[in-house]
Write a structure and sequence with these properties.
heterodimer, A: alpha/beta, Rossmann fold, six-stranded mixed sheet, four-stranded antiparallel sheet, B: MetI-like fold, elongated, transport (chain B)
Chain lengths: 281, 228
């Protein structure tokens, strides 16, 4: 469990990036921070592994104030995945994945063996192990980034817009891969994105932020969708634009789901009458 | 041509002397420039001050420097130490700016992610920043190397032994072949050291070689989906 208590961050130039931020991030769940650029979501994420130090308040991991912990050691036990993968371009894929174990003094042979297993875990061919990052596609690089974040078997995985720079098809694939991984690995994932659809897809807890790290609403995707806290949230999640206000219309014997503009958003399948088909779930 | 064949041992000896005067300044200016370049790249104030002051070193004419240094260092006028110190200073003048730029050119995505992985600042410098600055550092040290090899010859005016002595001696005794040999040998030596540096770069930075081969591959339609 990660707990923020009245945390503020003022940068040396005087900007107050985060003000009086309090939140409990439950263990073994995915918490997604979502908001427009400049809302402080990345700052909040980076305060967890002390890439950025808070200027007021306290942050505790499992009841332990991180201010008393050695930064370097703290970072080595927290996985971190970022946009553009941030892989070390001068190291082969296998060495990139093994970065943290090697820093921790794990023997090379052992660290490499584990790294190869992690390539399997994230769905990469072991043949890529001896390539350099520049020889991989964007999606493959992000997978390596995820494998690297998992290498030291951390309890916490921080993800800073990890799929922001890949094309939509690959992004969808990576998102589902992450859902699968999370089901297997059961980490405490803290995920930052500006994409509300991504937030709803991945988050057990979704936290919608406004400038200065102000929490506008937090809850499960269903809670937020059914009861947006205010105009801003309704607007942000697209409820006012009709993208999420769907209704059902019957056409050609099938139930078609339409948005408020009358455009087809999909077809209702499960338990729908008239199709005569059993839909496997 | 006869002159060359008759004087092969002399040419060999002068080349060896030239090399002995060239190599130390190249290595020393590289080593000394790393911490200064790091400092220059680290803070905004230090960059302006250090780069300007050290850049000015290059404006000092070499011959007067060869004459003044013995007085400062307490060495003899024909001591090879003078040449080594003077050329190290010139090397630093060129190399500090390159080092600062090289360290500044390392992608902040990479350095930040390295920090997030748990590299300590010291380890990160040696294992991430410095190697990734390598290609630019190599470009810089190649300029320093060629410049050093050519400047070593100036010491010949004061009688310091190098290939430069072949010019001065050849001029005095009016042997054109000797002057030409001195020039050709100096250029050949510069090229040789340059080639050696490129080779060292290839061995120490295998990933740079890979990247360029990928650019060729990426032009193929079959690889169209590969993102940078």
């Amino acid at each position: 469990m990660i707990e923020f208590r009245q945390v503020s961050k003022r940068f040396p130039d005087g900007t107050l990036a985060v003000e009086d931020f309090s939140l409990v991030i439950p263990s073994r769940k995915t918490t997604v921070f979502v908001g427009s650029s400049g809302c402080g979501k990345t700052t909040i994420l980076r305060m967890i592994n002390r890439m950025i130090d808070r200027t007021a308040g306290s942050i505790e991991i499992d009841g332990e104030d991180i201010v008393g912990l050695d930064r370097v050691k703290l970072r080595r036990r927290i996985g971190y995945v970022m946009q553009n993968s941030g892989l070390l371009p001068h190291r082969k894929v296998v060495d990139n994945v093994a970065t943290v174990p090697l820093l921790n003094g794990v023997p090379k042979r052992e660290a490499h063996a584990r790294a190869l297993e992690l390539l399997d875990t994230v769905g990469l061919d072991r043949a890529l192990a001896n390539r350099y990052p520049s020889q991989l596609s964007g999606g493959q690089q992000q997978r390596v980034g995820v494998a690297r974040g998992l290498a030291a078997d951390p309890n916490i995985l921080l993800m800073d817009e990890p799929f922001g720079a890949v094309d939509p098809l690959v992004r969808a694939e990576l998102q589902h891969e992450l859902i699968r991984l999370q089901r297997e690995l059961d980490k405490t994932v803290v995920f930052v994105t500006h994409d509300i659809d991504e937030a709803f897809l991945l988050g057990d807890q979704v936290v919608i932020l406004q400038k200065g790290g102000v929490i506008v609403q937090k809850g499960s995707p269903t809670e937020i969708l059914t009861a947006p806290a205010n105009e801003f949230v309704a607007d942000f999640i697209g409820a006012t634009k009709g993208k999420r206000a769907l209704h059902i219309d019957r056409r050609d014997g099938r139930d078609v789901v339409l948005d408020s503009e009358g455009r087809a958003a999909g077809v209702l399948v499960e338990g729908s009458a008239g199709t005569g088909e059993e839909v496997p779930t | 041509m006869n002159w060359v064949i008759e004087n092969l041992p002399l040419i060999g000896q002068r080349t060896a002397e030239h090399l002995a005067l060239s190599i130390p300044p190249i290595i020393l200016s590289f080593i000394i420039s790393v911490p200064i370049g790091w400092l220059a790249n680290r803070y905004r104030w230090s960059r302006g001050v250090l780069l300007t002051v050290l850049g000015l070193l290059y404006a000092i004419p070499s011959l007067p420097l060869f004459v003044v240094l013995p007085i400062i260092l307490g060495t003899g006028l024909r001591d090879s130490v003078n040449v080594i110190v003077a050329l190290t200073l010139y090397g630093i003048a060129l190399m500090v700016r390159t080092t600062a730029d090289a360290l500044g050119s390392v992608s902040s995505d990479v350095t930040q992610s390295a920090t997030a992985m748990g590299f300590s600042p010291w380890t990160r410098f040696w294992k991430v920043d410095l190697p990734l600055a390598g290609p630019v550092l190599l470009a810089g040290i190649r300029v320093v190397a060629v410049s050093t090899v050519s400047l070593v010859t100036v010491g010949a005016v004061l009688g310091i032994k190098s290939l430069g002595l072949l010019f001065t001696d050849g001029l005095q005794r009016n042997i054109v072949a000797e002057v030409a040999t001195g020039m050709v040998a100096t250029i050949a030596l510069a090229l040789l050291i340059d080639f050696a540096l490129v080779l060292v770069g290839r061995v120490l930075m295998p990933w740079t070689h890979v990247v360029s081969s990928k650019r060729v591959r990426r032009a193929l339609p079959s690889d169209a989906g590969v993102a940078a």
